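Let us work through a complete example step by step.
Step 1: write down the sequence.
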Amino acid sequence: MIVTDEDIRNLVIARLRTFSRDKRISVGSKGEFGTDELIERVKNNDDIGKTIVQIQLQYLQSLKDGLFLSD
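Step 2: predict the structure and record it as tokens.
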């Protein structure tokens, strides 16, 4: 199965939809963004959206690798 960039963006959007609507997320020096704005930025594939995708993929990889599991 080939996973496309659109598939990955859709996965990230699905994860973002689970976040509280009143939550704001800081993206380094680029500012704070609400959930809905982050979803739009991921859909538009702009710089902030790409950063969010990268962060989410790193998080999921860490889960897969068991970095968040305690012994």
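Step 3: interpret the result. The mean pLDDT is 92.
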